[in-house]
């Protein structure tokens, strides 16, 4: 009928379906606009991050008050114990100052026992025989041979003469006042009082530029570093040690104004040594 719309032939309908499919596929290939939920989430996270930056302690990044990460860089790897020393009873003269001691270790149960020179072993055996025979002149001569090699024969807890090696130990993580500084004498005397006549367990971590071994010292279950810090007779040496417990013990002494913290402005020993090096002390 003229003016009427006849149904489209089948082949035309197939072309139209193919065309509409390509249009839909092309639209799908374009980046779709973000949903409102995603936009909302991004906005909330941004607001929380902004609030966290304003409220967070220094060195932390926070999202609000519930999630924080530390931004403080790790200064060094966690140190591990290299070996342990078990000392003979400590002599009062062994304490150099409030953070350095000299100890002797029985070589019979020491990791380096196999390194003792044969002539030292022989001199130690002969000296024991000379002392038993009360030939003290001979014993003293043999002791000089032993001392010259860096060893010594001293009595153990059963008053038996044992071959021992001397070690200088720097207490790890603390710095006590130098002997000429305020509380330097008190620090040395307190360490001497604590250690005299005791056997120690020392966990060795490292050695310093002066040839001393650096370690944690245990005296009958008491941490010597903890004792000195709580007594207000040492600083936490933060330049070389970052353990939080040492800072905690120092802060306890500060809060109670114990020991050197009774002073209005105690000088740090590393600052004092620096002044001494440049001749201003």
Automatic annotation (TrEMBL):
Gene3D superfamilies on file: 2.40.50.90, Cysteine-tRNA ligase, C-terminal anti-codon recognition domain
Annotated TNase-like domain residues: 86-263
InterPro entries: SNase_OB-fold_sf (IPR035437), Staphylococal_nuclease_OB-fold (IPR016071)
Top-level taxon: Eukaryota
Region (Disordered), start-end ranges: 1-27
Signal peptide: none
Amino acid composition bias (Basic residues), ranges on this chain: 11-21
UniProt name for this protein: TNase-like domain-containing protein
Organism per entry: Urochloa decumbens
